[in-house]
Design a protein that fits this description.
heterodimer; A: 265 residues; alpha/beta; B: 261 residues; 84% helix; 0% strand
């Protein structure tokens, strides 16, 4: 259903993804793990065509989206719901208008049906009576839930979650995890979750990949990750400061300095 | 010896030229992409009205103060000189022609560039860095149709309308100074003002205002859409939107004047 084939992506001289290849099956819950700056969010943006890869193919339901223009991408994007890390709610619109926005814009339903659908998703996500509240008045957890409501309003086939539990207290993080599992079971959708949160990963994922230096270094099921003696997995799962992972920021700085040295020479 | 920290005039000139060309190209592309969205104008009616209200409410109070004092200064400066030759009654001619041809459209554009162009850049820039624009794209909503088009249309309408108002208030301000300081009575002042103005003075000024309005919105939106690196990036985009708009207004003003006269 979603396939990355040898995908490369650079920003300026820094190569973030170096030949990424994986396949996600329909209905699967797929987690992408890795340290900050390793290209997890970039992978999600490539999946929806928000970024174009330098090389490689990204196949969504048999269509290579790297070759599509805007109109083609718009059709493919209808399959997706996206929960952004910050929520990305439009601050000028109240909650009801934020959630109803994609339906109203595409005139997919009459207004009465849109309102009914908005009420339905607000109920699913436990956000009753918040229709007229502005995003600025909501807490971080509420914003994420409203953003999730907007992501599912068009009944997408695939939902992408960019660090869904980051910045939330443990209780709210657990609420979001339960929502992800609940939505997957209720709506039978494919989920792709980018996260650092191991508890969340073990709760929601069927399959996991671990990224490091723009490549997949390990993959497996949650159970395989939990009991793995592999030093990379162990360090990441337990969050140990010492191990085979090097600091990505430090690496970037080193690359920058090396690049400058070469330029000067 | 590392000399990279020293000022290199050639590098600076190269960066300015490439930056300007890149910016021009982006703005042109944005204009073409916005024009291609003409079919979505009826769908954007509500947001366009909202933007008109924002632009007018923002520009109106400042324009009244700037226009009245501009007309007064113009009348005072020219009147003092003209009085030496006994021609102070002619200030009506001078104030009316200057306001309608030049000062009205340029001052209005300057006010709108500072107030509204900067607001557009900051608002869209904040949306860009907080991933709201990405969210629109994922929902298959074209940000140009949703954000840029209503702003372009609103400014193209508000800038000429505000210019008419600025012209009228400026001429009135000149009349007040004529009466109180130079002892030129109102009827004489307005008769000269009316006789001085041709249809061309009025429509050329309004045409300028239309172009300036488009330009301010285009620059504000394009800087906002290109903002990156968080709050600092939004601040930089806002500052650039104002500076580029102010410079462009002057350059376009020269060529439009040359075209008409």
């Amino acid at each position: 259903m979603i396939e990355f084939i040898d995908v490369h992506k650079s920003f300026n001289s820094h190569e973030v993804l170096k030949g990424l290849s994986f396949k996600i099956n329909r209905g699967e819950s797929f987690a992408i793990l890795g340290r900050s700056g390793c290209g997890k969010s970039v992978t999600l943006k490539l999946m929806t065509g928000l970024l174009k890869p330098d090389r490689g193919q990204i196949i969504i339901d048999g269509i290579d989206i790297t070759k599509l223009e805007n109109s083609g991408l718009a059709k493919i994007r209808k399959k997706f719901g996206f929960l952004f890390q910050s929520g990305a709610l439009l601050n000028s619109l109240n909650i009801e208008n934020n959630i109803a926005l994609p339906l109203r814009e595409h005139k997919e339903l009459p207004e009465a049906a849109i309102m009914e659908r908005v009420k339905e998703v607000l109920n699913i996500l436990g956000l009753k009576h918040l229709e007229h509240v502005m995003p600025a008045e909501l807490s971080g957890g509420m914003k994420k839930r409203v953003s999730l409501a907007r992501a599912i309003i068009r009944r997408p086939e695939i939902i992408l979650y960019d660090e869904p539990t980051t910045g939330l207290d443990p209780i709210m993080a657990n609420v979001i995890n339960h929502l992800i599992v609940d939505l997957r079971e209720r709506l039978k959708i494919t989920s792709v979750v980018v996260t650092h949160d191991m508890k969340s990963t073990f709760m929601v994922a069927d399959r996991i990949i671990l990224l490091y230096r723009g490549q997949i270094i390990r993959s497996g099921t949650p159970d395989e990750f939990k009991d793995s003696p592999d030093p990379f997995i162990k360090q990441f799962v337990l969050g140990e400061p010492k191990g085979p992972f090097q600091d990505e920021d430090e690496l970037k700085l080193q690359e920058k300095l090396t690049g400058k040295k070469e330029e000067n020479n | 010896m590392n000399t990279s920290h020293l000022f290199n005039p050639f590098k600076s000139v190269r960066l300015i030229i490439t930056g300007t060309l890149e910016s021009l190209g982006y703005n042109l592309l944005l204009l073409i992409q916005s024009a291609r969205q003409y079919r979505s104008i009826p769908n954007r009616f509500r947001e366009t009205v909202n933007q008109i209200s924002i632009c007018a409410r923002g520009g109106f109070p400042v324009a009244i103060i700037v226009a009245i004092f501009s007309g007064m200064v113009l009348a005072l400066q020219s009147g003092i000189e003209m009085a030496r030759w006994g021609q102070e009654a002619q200030i009506g001619t001078l104030v009316a022609a200057t306001m309608c041809r030049e000062m009205g459209p340029v001052m209005t554009a300057y006010i709108l560039a500072g107030l509204i162009g900067s607001t557009m850049a900051a608002e869209i820039g904040t949306m860009k860095v907080s991933e709201e624009i990405d969210a629109l794209e994922v929902m298959s909503i074209d940000p140009i149709s949703y954000l840029v088009l209503p702003r372009l249309l609103a400014m193209a309408l508000v800038c000429p309308l505000l210019t008419v108002y600025t012209n009228v208030v400026g001429i009135l301000g000149g009349g007040v100074v004529g009466k109180l300081v130079l002892n030129v009575n109102f009827s004489l002042y307005f008769r000269y003002a009316q006789e001085a103005l041709t249809l061309k003075d009025i429509y050329s000024g309004l045409f300028k205002a239309l172009i300036f309005g488009f330009m301010i919105a285009l620059v504000g939106c394009s800087q906002g859409l290109r903002a990156e690196n968080g709050a600092a990036g939004v601040g930089k985009a806002t500052m650039k939107a104002v500076v580029i708009a102010l410079i462009s207004i002057l350059i376009f003003d020269y060529f439009l004047t040359w075209l008409f006269y």
